[in-house]
């Protein structure tokens, strides 16, 4: 893979400075034999501080709270603190009451909650709780070499480990048996560790923070070793009942996550509008035209970086700032050259600062200071809240910024490894972590849509254009991608009350909204394993399982204990279970909601928080099961007045049966507190997923009108309607405006908990994968209806066809017995001009079960096939059903380019040039449809001459699931490989180029003169 311009520009500057700071002259002594601390020779107690001497070495224990203490070791007896007050905040208050005892072989240093044992011969530490249970224990004393100090701990039989900050491709599952690096490496891809944090936590109920800017290495083997590249030991320990408590203690020490403004949670756009090498001459005020396009495409936009590109600069800043504010967005700037001008920039309208690695100076302290200073610069010169973004930060940065994973290239693999990254970072107190949508370079409309949809369940994200060969705003890809992107951008906007409430919670607990399953389900043995690696939770209520392959089916979705509802269809699952074969067409993100959820939302499809008015409704999306609560947090969304108490909270309680039939009561408490712009009254809308219609709905004891249709409900000011066709059956309720200063209750009589009065009675609609239709040709689609615990009778199955398509009549089935499946075939004719490739459809079954009229739905995709080729056909001229590529888009009749479409060069192999062919970068997969009409594929294969001898790949041809031909390993110095493959009868052919040496550098494979001979 080619190195980005950005990385090349850093190599000679910042990287050398960091290497000098982190490695230092001690690197030559890295192989020095280690010295282990010896026997205790002296002991001193001074309040909550204890000092133990072991010859010339000294150890010091300082208690911060009943569960937190600091342990230091100075091999030469001279304590030092290079970090000073840069990371650890003043804790205030008095130290805890402690006491000590001499037990003969050890000293015991105790608070109310913990006892630290200091064994005398040799000095060795172990931590115990007040009930006598062991938390951790050293297997040998602290040790050091000329440039490293190491702690060695015993590992529990089932002990799991998390943390170390942002670890790309890892972190939301256990680090057990792995080695984790905490340092700068400028590797922003899978395996890199930007935004490292020298903190880890254990499932045994403790965490450790190394108070240093030096690189750390944690090896979670047996035993566990934790080393820092400095000849001093300085660590804080936190003991708690669980991971959330430990994260809370750690962030109390180093700072709670900041509270972002609401526009900071809306999507951001980063581009260069002045001196842009990829777009020609532009002007800063051109950013306003892009903001207008977001509005024209009905897409949310919270802020824009207008100078994101080396040498970009800006002009007319006050006009740009005001213009963006007039369009409902805020101005952001990339601080390529530092923050010396931030006061003037903020006064001109800047509200977001993106910090660059190029000026972080000689180490992480400079980067952390930059985060704090930029944050403070925004707040010192406006009434706004500070917001910064950084790709290389450290412990403490959570209190002033968003951490994002750096400059990457969009691909399916990019999506895959990012999924565990951000939830894993939450385990280190990083509440706001994210990556650019579809990366900066490369990507495709399909990977863009897939990447954007799951990132809309992160609190923050942005799209990045200033470095890319082409613009990457969410409306650039055309249909159906623009509509899919809009759907998820608006879902994120609707969920802002939920996400904003979790942002407030993070300021109290240190725990961000995006969470690994292990955080919420610590006793689930699968939560720490790869079974849960490619999914995460947003808050406690949403389980997100992104699609990270070019497929319409998602396998291996692990649902932990509880009841889970498919957000799109209403299908109910009982966990723990693993869902395979989940139908996920391009417009469908696998998304599940936990039973008991009460989710506050903004209804109406708004595109900005500024679209909210004094009369706007608040919606509650409720999945009733047992007793559950949610605390809605609100403030003015922009200023810092909330820090002085200008905010309000509203407590919601849902009381429902655990399962089966019964009444549901929803209590919405008074909104406690006040702030500028608070709604004094507002209408409410409720969606309750019951699966059964209630007999009556009352508001404060007064019956609401039952409306007999969706149209009547939409028209009415108040009332309720049971919609059997919406997600398995939901009750919709709307109210007149109600005072926010008064509590009220809503009661649904004779209905049911989530899953219906008869649990499991709901039928499921599924559609077999890999169904194909020809454009304009009559065909059939198979649909399966599976009855639940009760018979489904009077079943009618139909299709919701796109405009221009023709769907045949519904199929009818008198009865589907409980626990069985019936397949029906439905006629469907695609439009003559239907675009080849995936088309999302919906199948619906209306039926009666357990004395209720019900509807079940299934979203699925069919593949529209182009006409098969005739005669001789160049592979580069055919429709590509799939074009997965390792770096940038695959190229037609060009070599693989830098990152954008058509930026490659003439295909050249062994000095011979080719006018036709395909240029790719491993790993790649080009799929074409032959429909059984072709007999032979010929081509010349090799690594393009432009690579000048680098690279190592293998070429292969596959047809209908079988490998027809594989080349030997091919390098940049290899002879051209002739390709002559019999493809007789093949319908789908894949041309693949695979990396063979684990390095993607230079893997530019050419299918030169690739041609099919067809009938």
From TrEMBL:
Transmembrane ranges?
none
Q: Which domain of life is it from?
A: Bacteria
One Pfam entry name: Glyco_hydro_31_2nd
Which UniProt key words apply to this protein? Glycosidase, Hydrolase, Signal
GO annotation (BP), single:
carbohydrate metabolic process
Q: What family is this protein classified in? A: Belongs to the glycosyl hydrolase 31 family.
The molecule here is called: DUF5110 domain-containing protein
Listed GO MF terms? carbohydrate binding; hydrolase activity, hydrolyzing O-glycosyl compounds
Signal peptide from the UniProt entry: 1-30
Q: Which residues form the Glycosyl hydrolase family 98 putative carbohydrate-binding module domain?
A: 869-1014
